[in-house]
Amino acid sequence: MSTLWSEDYEKVFGKPTKWSLFSEDEEAYEAFRQTIIDSPHYVYDKDKLPFTGVKVYGYDLYLLKLSVDQKKAEGKKLFYIKDETPGLAKVLAFGYYSNNTFYLMANSIIRKTEFQKQMKKISSLYWQIHELQADSVIRKCDIEAKSTQSQSEQFELFYPEGYRIIQDIECSASIAAAYVLGHEADYTKWKGMDGKPLAEVYTFYKGRTELTETQGFWSKLRSQKEESTRIIEADNGGRLLAEKIIMPLKQLLSEKIITPLNQLLSEKVITPLIRLNETINDPIREELSEIHCYLTGEKYQAEGCYYVKEKKIKVFAGAEFSIDVSSTLRYSATDYKRRTFINEHCSTKKSKYILKEDFCFDSVETATVFITGQVFTGLWIWATEDCRALGEIIDEEVY
Predict the structure, then answer these.
(1) What is the pTM of this model?
(2) Could you read off the pLDDT of 36-46 as tens digits, one per residue?
(3) Nearest one of 173, 177, 176 to 205, comparing CA atoms
């Protein structure tokens, strides 16, 4: 019965075939199976995770690698500074020399120290340092201060992660070296990818003119620091009065130096007391509450009033917002907030975004990002009519 059924089945449906990925006789399958059987056995350590020893780099290093690859593709000869001193923020900065000018490269990772602020005391360095500070952002941290966390707290939270340059900056190679390291340095710190120093590659640095000038800057800073040492400070006035005024006066008298008493009193007592009084009572600082300021650029322009105590800024109607957005800001959460603000508070006129009415921003950083479409340190890009930056006037910790 089964034979008849089989024959009848084949007449209707045809002869059944075996399901196989290979030929009907399965020779190919047998050959493939045998290669699997004959392949060597691999042994792995069960105590180790699959990717043990694999190092994953952060987003900042990824951005830096993109910049390095781009400059290499453009034919630029790159130089770098790398410093991994324990306890300090790591430094990995790149630069290149083009058209007789040195450029500190975008996405270079630098560290923050007090020395960078001291560099601004040299008048000829002021605007170079101003540009470097304006084009630096905190690594792994949104510069826009959150309601529950102030910007200064964010600085400390990510210390010693360091800071990142957001665009190529034209700068002296020596000043760039000192800035990224946060201490006295010069162009001899820059090494080529092939190990050759900057001076060996470019004849401009063989004359050592820049080296001499830079050493003069650092010498001047050291002397300023010594001269600016206070004779008397505001805390514990009685102890300081004894240590800084009475004791030196007694010492002079004991050494029998023939000096008129009124001159000694003037130099050792009256002048220090005047300085102490100036330290305690600073009427200019106390009265400073509002600063009229401007923000000017090729693609944006704004006028406003900065409220010192509240740390807010009112931007006046008619401010022109940039249409373009930097690559570091594009498609971010801040970019979305910016576009939302422009849709609600700006009108479009001749391909420009114009602020309809006065608007008070909670922070100068937010106002700056919304207007420029770039990440800047607001207090160092807004300036008064006489070209003084807000940060310079109010003397705050803005970087």
Answers:
(1) 0.46
(2) 888 887 777 77
(3) 173
